[in-house]
Amino acid sequence: MNLLCNPALTYVPTPLIQNPSKRTSKIHSCQLISTTHKTRRRCDLYDLHKEVVPYAEAWSWQKAIVTERRALSDRNEDFSDSLIILQHHPVYTMGTGSCDNYLNFDVSNAPFDLYRTERGGEVTYHGPGQLVMYPIINLRYYKMDLHWYLRSLEEVVIRALSSTFSIEASRVEGLTGVWVGDAKLAAIGIKVSKWIAYHGLALNVTTDLTPFDQIVPCGIRDRQVGSIKGLLNDNRHRVEDYDLNDDQDLMHTTCKSLVKEFCDVFQIDFCQKSLQRSATQNSVGLAS
């Protein structure tokens, strides 16, 4: 199995195993209004939470932004960070050191595309109904401490679950992610290069959880995965204000809450941006 990392910016990475079905995604500019304060760092927001984007495409976007940020940082001109929010088509991703033993299938006959990436952590699943947040952040302007950054990403999710759904989530000592009881709702895996962090977190909102049965999620055998919708369907977490049959509304509400809590935890202000695919569909344009 070959390690696929550092793909060229004009190249859409090839998965370790390509599922025969091919898909395309339209990219639209989304509207979000926030108040700007000069004392807070700016963060460019690419809000695609209604879009289902192929993993390779989003991976290339991250790479393009990271390369741009590195060049700006070298000139002391790195004045903003970035946050991409989206959904993915069904895909399995592995970290740099992920173990094949956590795959419950033959890699030559994977049920979905399978990628080995440069992030940390073990294998996980991404799919529709899961909100994926990719912050591209220069930690020099926050705190040059990876543990602090991981705990901060967890805090974003914990606050969103509590403030919006009255779901009391927590951390588990020695593990990364956000949990409700023994169920993991949010997985986190990052890569940091020259203190610029990318990759990020994935939160199960209305996700079909059955694809997780084909793997040992995050390499943890004695715990399960959960979703916001699953918890809200449970009488212990029921919130009367939400129509549990309206997945789009639940996704939109969760996205708004995550954006707000991200803004508060990292003390930033968002500036709306859009991502545009080139005519070749193999490169990405960062539109202002």
TrEMBL record:
Taxonomy, superkingdom: Eukaryota
Signal peptide stretch: none
UniProt KW keywords: Acyltransferase, Transferase
Transmembrane as UniProt keyword: no
Coiled coil: none
SUPFAM superfamilies: Class II aaRS and biotin synthetases (SSF55681)
Keyword Transferase: yes
Ranges where the BPL/LPL catalytic domain occurs: 77-270
UniProt name for this protein: lipoyl(octanoyl) transferase
Organism: Salvia miltiorrhiza
